Amino acid sequence: MSNTELLPVLESEAEPCCPPLDERPLTAEEAERTARMFKALGDPVRLRLFSAVASHRNGEACVCDISDVGVSQPTVSHHLKKLKEAGLLSSERRGTWVYYRVEPAVLAAMGAILTKAASV
Prior knowledge:
By secondary structure, this protein is α+β, with helices and mostly antiparallel strands. The chain contains five helices and three strands. The chain has a single domain (28-119), classed as Winged helix-like DNA-binding domain superfamily/Winged helix DNA-binding domain (Arc Repressor Mutant, subunit A), CATH 1.10.10. The chain has helices at 28-41, 44-55, 63-66, 73-85, 104-119; strands at residues 60-62, 89-94, 97-102. Strands 1-3-2 form a three-stranded antiparallel sheet. It is elongated. Residues 1-14 have low confidence and may be disordered. Keywords: DNA-binding, Transcription, Transcription regulation.
């Protein structure tokens, strides 16, 4: 018998960051929010952590599975906090471990910005 338990998929409450760049000019608030997200991904350690979560099964990973990025555990925690503050990740504590999830609505909006801008 297995101790594996299927967990429910949680709906994202994150709001998309902004409209595609060719739709209309960004408001000041949209530009601030979008810049925060791209700035958070501008650090190589954060980008590796974000990629580790995004590529993990179901877009969710335990911090214990993604912390091997060449920096200390407190530094990993700092970078994960920055990704959460930028709205790119959310987290949930389960027992002693914290699980991180990619925020799909925000990721889709960022992808739309880049895809539309690239196709022009």
